[in-house]
């Protein structure tokens, strides 16, 4: 079964939107496979967004993602990667359709509430990164679920 990595960004956590975001994925019918509250260190944030390293907004993006705790989640289901991207909406919340998370809940690209993997390969990679050997990736003694 396909799995994706969904992360509620610091603005979403600070604004109290954790329940709202989780509820949308639950109601759609996807299955939660792992969850933790996590303060992402700078090096892991840079690794996560490494494809955007050359962009002018990259330093601001890393400051944003490391500015407070995020909620890291694994979700699985048929076609979950593409479906999650639809539920989340366009990168710029002003262009995101009403009914999507960003379309309903945000106005700024640099404060767009949630991340979703853009391919099944990246879903696996991003969840794998999170379940690595780092001590902070363990919650209550249980390792964050690794696919397969
Ligand atoms: P993610 O799910 O977070 O990966 O967003 P995305 O796939 O919709 O967009 P992309 O991967 O291209 O960019 C990653 C993140 O960088 C975005 O979600 C934004 O938070 C941020 N970002 C992208 N473009 C801009 C920009 O032009 N300005 C600023 N300030 N941030 C940007
Ligand atoms: Mg992306």
Would you kindly provide a written description of the structure presented here, covering whatever features stand out?
By secondary structure, this protein is of the alpha+beta class. It is 38% helix and 19% strand. It is built from seven helices and six strands. It has helices spanning 10-14, 18-28, 42-48, 58-65, 80-88, 101-105, 120-130; strands spanning 3-8, 31-38, 70-76, 114-116, 138-139, 142-143. Strands 2-3-1-4 form a four-stranded antiparallel beta sheet. The protein has a two-stranded antiparallel ribbon with strand order 5-6. Mean pLDDT is 90; it is low at 132-143. Guanosine-5'-triphosphate is lined by residues 52, 57, 60-61, 91, 109-110, 112, 115-116, 118.
């Amino acid at each position: 079964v396909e799995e994706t990595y969904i992360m509620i960004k610091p603005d979403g956590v600070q604004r109290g939107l954790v329940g709202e975001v989780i509820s949308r994925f639950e109601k759609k019918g996807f299955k939660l496979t792992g969850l933790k509250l996590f303060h992402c260190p700078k090096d892991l944030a840079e690794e996560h967004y490494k494809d955007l390293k050359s962009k002018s907004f990259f330093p601001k993006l890393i400051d944003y993602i490391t500015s407070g705790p995020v909620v890291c989640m694994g979700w699985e289901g048929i076609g979950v990667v593409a479906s999650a991207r639809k539920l989340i909406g366009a990168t710029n919340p002003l262009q995101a359709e009403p009914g999507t998370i960003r379309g309903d809940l945000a106005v700024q690209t640099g404060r767009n509430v949630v991340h979703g993997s853009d391919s099944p390969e990246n879903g696996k990679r991003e969840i794998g990164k999170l379940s690595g050997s780092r001590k902070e990736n363990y919650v209550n003694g249980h390792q964050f679920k690794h696919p397969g």
